[in-house]
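Final report, closing paragraph on structural work. Over the funding period we assembled a curated collection of sequence-structure pairs, and we close with a single example.
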Amino acid sequence: MKQFSLLIIVVLISFSCKKEYQPRTIEKINIQEFKKDSTSIRTIKAIDKNHMIFAGSKGDISTTKDGGKTWKTINLKYQDSIIPHFRSIATNINGTFALSIGNPALLYKINNNNKQIVYTETHEKVFYDSMKFFSDGKHGIAVGDPTENCPSIILTSDGGNTWTKLPCEKLPAFEEGEAFFAASNTNIKVINSTVWIASGGTKARILKSSDFGQTWDVYNTPIIQGDGPQGIYSIDFYDENNGIAIGGNYAKPNDNCANKAITSDGGKTWTLIADNQNPNYKSCAQYVPDTNGKEVFAVGKTGVSFSNDGGHTWAKVSNDSYYTIQFVDKNTAWLSGHQKIGKLVLPSMKWTGFKIKKS
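Its predicted structure, as stored:
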């Protein structure tokens, strides 16, 4: 009986240890930098610690499979004269998809040596900002600034082979001057069949769909808004209820007023955090995987910041300027910036008895 009771105690202790994640304290990080001359890189797809893909501003799509030691690059040109400026990239089993900003919008599907344009759009106001595939690999979404009185949203349900633009009658109306930011390809977040999109400018709102983008709700946020460069630049969710939004004013990057907020009800309501405290303007915020929503990184042209309490307090851990960050596991992330790619490796932690020990 004593042995049985002891077993129960051990199981309960083990269970409680797993549930109560102890976040790391990080005061400084070192980022390995890979120079990429003549291209600005605002979108990446991190596959694992060795494999990542980026799309750049000069029609360039580049891949490494050995942790950055070597790179394979292709350069795309449309009708021999238009060099696509890419700020969105996504992958599924059918290949890599890269979407350009500006007129005309060009969405490429790339599989090995095959390069195919699967969607184009010509309009003086066309400007696509970000793109994601859902976990099923078949459904995908890309969003852009309004060409009418609603956001531009295109969808695919066949793995990216064909894309269709939603009509305005199926979408929330946008205020004059409300749009999206093509800053880091992270103003979209998808989990299962749910997608959240963050806007900025005259309004800073969250658009949400729970059916792969077919129907939509829209929610207000307290993030700074009202002017063109103000609003939400990035969102992330660590589950379907809890998420973070970050941004600020690109034109005043040192301001830290009303530029960070969290939600616990799936994006319906938002609460400001660390208001009038650092970090200031950031273009990307991402939860660290397997940290129970405690650890968050935010990057931008003002440096890199880290939170170990879900965004309530922050520490600046690097002065390095980056546009976006994407984790592949708890300890490894890829970053991109102006003429550079970065790789971040954090110290791992493991249990030794009841003490946490760095490995």
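The chain has one helix and 31 strands. The first helix runs from residue 2 to 19. We thank the funder for supporting this effort.
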